[in-house]
Amino acid sequence: MAALYEGYTLCGLVPGQTLTNSGIQGIEAERDSDHVVVTDSTRSVTLYKVSDQKPLSSWTVKQGQTLTCPAVYNSQTEEYVVVSDNKVIRIWKDEDILLDKAFKATVSSDVWRVHCLPGGEPVVLFQRGAVRLLDSLLSAPQQPIEEVLAQEEAIRWSTNIVADSQQFVIFTTEQKGDSFLYLHRLNPNTLQRYRLEREEPGLSPLSFSASYRDKHICLLYLYPNGHVYQSVVSVRGLGGDEGAQALPLPRSLLLGLPVGEGLLEAASAQLLDEAHVAVVGVPHPSAGAGKDFLCIWNTNFQTLQAGKEMAGKIYGQLWTFSNKLFIPHGKTLSVIPYECPKSSLASALGKLKQAKTEGELKQMSCVPSWNNILHGDKAQPSRPAETRKTVSNFIKTKYLNFSVQTAPVEEVQREVEGLLSRADIQDLQPLVGQLASMLVSRSLADPAFYTPSTLAQLVHTQSLCHSVCPDLVLLALERRDFFLCQLCLQFFPDIPEAVTCACLKAFIRVVIKTGEEDKEKSSTPPEPICPVGLHKAVLLNEVLLTAYSDTFLLPHLKDLSSQHVVLFLQYLQFLYLKYSQDASPQMHGLRSPSLTQIMDWVCMVLDAHFTVLVMTPEAKGLLVNLHSFVKSQVRLVSELGKIEGSLQELNKMKVKKDVGQYSIEIIELF
Amino acid sequence: MGEFKVHRVRFFDYMPSAIRAMAFNSHTERLALVRADGALEIFNFADHYFQEKVIPGQDGRAVEALCWVGQRLFSAGLNGEITEYDLENLRPRYTVEAYGGPIWTIGSNKQGTLLMVGCEDGTVKMFEILKERIQFQRNLERQKGRIVSLSWHPSGTLIAAGMMDMIRIFNAETGHATHRMLVERGVGASKSREVVVWSVAFLSDYTIISGDSAGKVQIWDGLTGTLVRTHLVTKWDVLCLSVSQDESSLIAGTSEGTVVQFQFISSTVDQQEEEWVRTRTFKNHSHDVRALAHTETAVVSGGMDTQLVVRPLLDKVEKNTQESAMRKIALPHRSLVCCAKKAGLLLFQFPDHLEVWRVGESDGHGKPGDSLPVKRKPEKLIQLKGKGGDHIYSSALSPCGEWLAYSTVSSVRLYRLQYNNISITKVSKLPKDLCLGHQLCFSSDSTKLFASSRHSSVIVVALNQLECKYLHTLKPKSGSRQPVHLLCTSEDGKWLATANTDCEIHVYDLHKRKLHCTVPIYSSCPTAIAIHPTTSHLVVVHADQQIFEYSLVQKEYTEWSRKLQKQGLHSLWLERDTPVTHVTFSLKNPAHIILHDMFMFCIIDQSLPLPESKTLLYNQMTLRSLPEQERIRHSHAFKICKNFKHVMCVSLLEDHSLVVAAEPVLHYLSEVSKRAQTTLSQFAGQYIHVMGL
User: Fold this and answer.
1) B340 touches chain A (CB under 8 A)
2) Which of A543, A640, A656, B404 is buried deepest, with most CB atoms within 10 A?
3) How many domains does chain A fold into?
4) Which residues in chain B are contacts of A649 at CB distance < 8 A?
5) ipTM of the complex
6) Domain Nucleolar protein 11 C-terminal, which positions (chain A) (predicted)?
7) Is the peptide bond before A118 cis (omega within 30 degrees of 0)?
8) pTM of the model
9) Record: contact A669-B603, CB cut-off 8 A
């Protein structure tokens, strides 16, 4: 499950007069993952050390001159390259203090961008589409530059990519509402032009992002209507007839993002890896229409993985370098570390779902939150302190891993508690999964070791799921820790039917062992008597509430003994009667299954054991009762069916328009 | 069952006329009702409110008041004439000029010996009711100002007369006015206007109740001439009053469309003395309530919005029964549309003219629910204006579409139509015997015209290109004097069936030219009859919604009919409150009987099981929602289609497409409103003219 961690501020912004511009022209990587070069939209270039949140040095052009492209760092020569006033290329080194004294060369045509990849050679892309290696350009700065683009065609975005030691300059253009993609390969030079499929008229892409993988260049682009498309171009087939014709570029819809009201204006989508896209300036699906969110979406499952509200205006700019997102918003440029672990289906079920169930669970849960018990409503640590801690968590993790493997129960408990109490559990999802599986495997290996409260705490974070640590439920069953079982059933979205059934069996067995005394206590006949005690009922209810697919559940249900089946059916019958009598379906704050869930289970248990039940004398009365329930249900459904027809007819009647004085109609009588 | 192509015809813009006056005869339980166009209608309240008789009106005849004297019915109007109706031959019997200017009101004494009318010139005129006619007897003391309303004290000694600004009490013996009670005018601007006492009622305890144009219902002591109590019930006019027979309840109709009930009860529990207390208000009309009748169990009201409303009083009837349901009678209980099946023509009957239309065509096919593209639009071929000011009673178009006949109270007219270049020729020489035609009908080969005549007889006339020849008269043996209201022939030309308001159904063998049989008499009046084209079974539907099938060959009820009677019709079928007005058959499927009332049409499939009491009668929706294989299990004989409202005609053309003439309700209601406005202005104009204002 991808996660966004607590961010921090890199620098303040001086937004443009109109507030539509963040004041930042570009951010480029410098020597390592902790250094970036930030070029503002007017005159200065600043080098930052990211983890220290401070500038190392800064260079400015003279008043009256403007930087027209973001500065890039040439790691081979340890030089910076920037273009001022479109035509003047400036090159300087770290130790140069004044830009004006650095190397300058004026070229004959306007430059769009200089691109340089770490380890690669700087490339100059001219506004009219021509591409030159910086070295060859500087050897004859005034050399004529050809026009590649058509008259009204203009570059919108560009990047460069090294693929199999081949360097590519990729840029997109727009001409009269049509968008084109150019792939320029250097050494040997080839150019291929593609035409992007048209979206709704008047819509052109808001942002592009390109990546290279498996011998293909992958282009991702976002439209104002929230559609994120991906186009894949093979680098092999390039060449051939050069730029003669724009080939159509096939695309596939990766995501349809919610756009709220109206179209997106300032938004950007960046590929993070094969399966994840970071999007900024798009509303959070469960937080209304506000567009000031940074979200990570899983493109394979189309699920929202993480989301963060960004204070202040979003400019639709987003950069990503080495697991950090750089976002200008409001008056700050924030750095937000993120993580995109390999996605599993369970974790991809996504934040959306979890956020929802969390709310529900809070209402229904009779088990108080552990955090509340431990810390009460104590205020959470103040924000700045938190940011510091986040960083240190990573260091802590390593140590924790070690202690979990070896330390005695008490210590593990203390350590984990300490970790979880840090309030930013959401950010620790991968860690929680790791911890849980380590604890489980250690418990399985060492019968003396078991940390029920720690495991319960981990489950309670709701960051766990069955597929992350598949042995947890079985371990809990083995140790007869029914409370943990209940928690797992409650919080895991992906418990396999076999495990559900194992839980059911275990629960019923407990019921039978202790059930007798409960029965004797209650003796008033008019009320239906609950065949099981209260907290067993709670456990069984938890099973009834679990999601399942009946084809998978049915074979496992068959393993139940007939005695168990009768008792379970009695309990289901009790629930049914209780529900049909009570107007309010909620039983005193317990998590209770719905009527349809009960009926589904009744049907399934009957399906699984019908022949056995028919032969069992004590089940006879039960079957007769159930038959009458089913009959009443069938009647109800058929009555509803009748109403359905009339309601549909009512619907149709509304649209019936006035047909005037005469019409020839077809009617059908049945 | 299958799909039907339906010509949905909405251009028959028939509009009933406003209700002007009504009178209820509690002995025979007949309600007489007169409309603004002068048409008289008789409803049998004992037989499901069936409209059994209609006497068409006449141009310029405005009837203001109606009065039953025993079984005899009199009317008077602003033309100054008193008319007695011949309810057997459905025509005015005679007319007497009262010589007192326009007549506003008519009444009789309890004994039924004297008739009195209130005239514009301020006289109350007495007429002696003789066996065959009425004879002027005398005038009461002449007053200044018109006599708008009259009521005779049950003892016969005193008469109360509502006038302008006052009520007069006359001594019936001497003819002198004994009391003068001044009626207060309305407040404000209407202070300067005379108040019209639209209605008075003289009760046996000498209480007089009046309703006036200032919106008051007033209670007076008739002996002393003093005002007892005033109830202001509306801002506008109280137009009519009606008192129940036991004088314990009184209703007043207002021009706001409401009916207000008063009851003679003690106003508090411990109080012994009873008084008139306003109890209920009914709002069933959109416009003026011009006429009221207080039957034993119900309030009957009618007015500008043309609907007759029967509102049962829930303290007088058993609740939640059919009897307690309110009825609105909006359309006539007889067919005003005649369909020439072979020619695809429709004849529409209006009070004063006829229209012949050709239905449209389409060549498309479509799914159920679709509207097909109309290739040829429907076309009005002929509009024929009635002659002589008499309104049309009955009309018929021959199946081939070439003959058109219509009748008025005074004559029968026959026309020959040609369509290749449209022409209409009147057949000038009609046989003398053909002077009355309550019902008209052509044989299926269009060679004969049948016209029902006096005493339920039927005149048979042969038609050919050259002449129109009287053949013979068919007479029932029963000697009934009632008119025939239903007439039909069989497809093969062998049979002719008639039904009269004595509930008799006679079937004649046309080949033998004599009565073949009389169907056993059923207590409820037939509302539609038809003879099956292949089996020669007569299907009869009665006002109580019962359906019978009678084999003409065997002269007995058919097996199916017996089964239906044995099992009984579905309760929902019996609860419908509009009669079936037309029955027809499908040539394609002989087991199908097609019939309709105002709100639905129904195809009865005799091959299917009858619906049992527990099955869903209106099951088309359910069947639609079921998969095809299951439908057959759930379907029953009654296929009811409720897609259409205000159905005036359902007929099957030769190409098996259905013609449904129905009015959209919205259109209908807006028309009522529009009509009411124009009528109101006409009405006001008329009054201003009459009153000399």
Assistant:
1) no
2) B404
3) 2
4) 621
5) 0.78
6) 412-670
7) no
8) 0.55
9) yes
